[in-house]
Amino acid sequence: MRDQTCEESGIELTVDSAPSSQDLDRLRAGLTEHSLEFVERPGFVPIAVFARRNGELLGGAFGNLNWNWLDLSLLWVAESLRSRGLGGQLMAAIERAAWERGCRQAHLETFSYQALAFYESHGYEVFARLEDYAPDVDRYYLRKSLQDAT
How far apart are CA 76 and CA 65, in angstroms? Predict the structure, then answer.
């Protein structure tokens, strides 16, 4: 899509492959302003847990608190530390922090070549699947009740 201007209103439409944090913050704020009429508190509240050794980032989990849901966006563990329990510790820590902030559910997305079995082993259940999201790759959507995160 090329940039466009709506002739009648003078509004310019642009496509941005690297949107500014200010623009994204404004989108979140606009959605939050609209939603507050219907929900108890703002959404899009960022939360992260990091694992470091001597200042070096070795893993982390990042997401947003959206009302009573944790939307887990990123989970990463350095290759040298995988399958040693750090991923589970990061999951437990971010789930516990979300619980303490009022979240009672969590959801996330993963691909068939990533960590589906890992998430299932930590209590997440698939509720949707998009087949052939990329050639020979499926995308999975999972959810979990955080009742045991305390």
Answer: 19
Number of domain units in the chain: 1
Is the alpha carbon torsion for 107, 111, 115, 118 positive or negative?
positive
**pLDDT tens-place string over residues 119-149:** 999 999 999 999 999 999 999 999 999 986 5
Domain region containing 99? 4-145
Q: What is the CA radius of gyration of the chain?
A: 18
Report the pLDDT value the prediction gives residue 7, as an integer from 0 to 100: 62
Q: What angle do CA 135, 112, 147 make, to 5 degrees?
A: 150
Of the candidates 139, 146, 73, 141, the one whose C-alpha atom is nearest the C-alpha of residue 106 is 146
150 domain-assigned:
no
Does residue 102 lie within any of the structural domains? yes
State in Å, rounded, how far the first CA of the chain is from the last one.
48
Q: For residue 102, how many C-alpha atoms fall within 13 Å in the half-sphere facing its CB?
A: 10
